[in-house]
């Protein structure tokens, strides 16, 4: 009986002690605010992490494929660009060659036009344009001015000075005919001069009647060289409307 009483008392004490502990826990929970308690965040499970990693791996693989595709496309574009640049260089080289050929053709054409133009050089003139009479004698060599111009193609002969000026380098042919009355002073002598240097003469000396002489020459002239006729000192020359005394010349071919 005593043992039963002791057991009952023990059970009663245990129940009271448990109740007191529960009351104390409730009080402590009420006193502590939720803000002051650091509640740990829920951690993902290992299975969730594996799923995220797998998804990221798939996306990364896709990005790598796209990157490889872009790199391949870039290489193709660079190859096309290099081909286009090479073609452009070829076209530029061809254009330069064509421009050089065109310039050469223009130069040749200009040269041919120039030759055709300067190839048309010829003149012929008589000593007097009108009237009649002797010229001379003079006490010095005197340049004869042939004023009766019949033709002056290329205007290389000057009828005011009697001087022919070569427009281009080339071979030129000249002829001159002189006429005078014979007698005590009836002698005629004319010389052809190149740049002031004597080349050929034509001369006739007789005591009575009329006398004539002529000569001709082919000269290699540089552009700007001059040719003219001089009446020698103490000689005479005659001309009238029949044009006995003449001076002519023309370009055979340029050189």
From TrEMBL:
<keyword id="KW-0964">Secreted</keyword>
<dbReference type="GO" id="GO:0005576">
    <property type="term" value="C:extracellular region"/>
</dbReference>
<feature type="coiled-coil region">
    <location>
        <begin position="53"/>
        <end position="115"/>
    </location>
</feature>
<dbReference type="InterPro" id="IPR050822">
    <property type="entry name" value="Cerebellin_Synaptic_Org"/>
</dbReference>
<protein>
    <recommendedName>
        <fullName>C1q domain-containing protein</fullName>
    </recommendedName>
</protein>
<dbReference type="Pfam" id="PF00386">
    <property type="entry name" value="C1q"/>
</dbReference>
<keyword id="KW-0175">Coiled coil</keyword>
<dbReference type="InterPro" id="IPR008983">
    <property type="entry name" value="Tumour_necrosis_fac-like_dom"/>
</dbReference>
<feature type="signal peptide">
    <location>
        <begin position="1"/>
        <end position="21"/>
    </location>
</feature>
<keyword id="KW-0732">Signal</keyword>
<dbReference type="InterPro" id="IPR001073">
    <property type="entry name" value="C1q_dom"/>
</dbReference>
<feature type="domain" description="C1q">
    <location>
        <begin position="116"/>
        <end position="255"/>
    </location>
</feature>
């Amino acid at each position: 009986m005593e043992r039963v009483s002791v057991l009952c008392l023990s059970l009663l004490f245990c129940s009271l002690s448990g109740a007191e502990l529960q009351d104390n826990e409730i009080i402590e929970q009420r006193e502590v605010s939720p803000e002051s308690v650091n509640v740990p965040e829920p951690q993902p499970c290992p299975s969730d992490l594996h799923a995220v990693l797998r998804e990221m791996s798939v996306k990364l693989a896709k990005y790598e494929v796209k990157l490889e595709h872009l790199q391949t496309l870039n290489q193709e574009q660079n190859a096309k660009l290099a081909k286009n640049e090479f073609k452009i260089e070829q076209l530029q080289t061809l254009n330069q060659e064509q421009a050089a050929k065109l310039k050469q053709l223009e130069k040749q054409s200009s040269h041919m036009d120039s030759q055709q133009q300067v190839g048309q050089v010829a003149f012929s003139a008589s000593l007097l344009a009108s009237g009649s009479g002797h010229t001379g004698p003079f006490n010095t060599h005197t340049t004869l001015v042939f004023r009766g111009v019949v033709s002056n193609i290329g205007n290389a002969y000057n009828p005011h000075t009697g001087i022919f000026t070569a427009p281009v380098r080339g071979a030129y042919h000249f002829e001159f005919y002189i006429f005078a009355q014979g007698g005590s002073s009836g002698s005629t002598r004319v010389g052809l001069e190149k740049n002031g240097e004597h080349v050929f003469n034509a001369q006739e000396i007789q005591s009575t009647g009329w006398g004539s002489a002529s000569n001709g020459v082919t000269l290699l002239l540089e552009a700007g060289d001059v040719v003219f006729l001089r009446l020698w000192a103490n000689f005479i020359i005659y001309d009238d409307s029949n044009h006995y005394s003449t001076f002519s010349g023309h370009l055979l071919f340029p050189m």
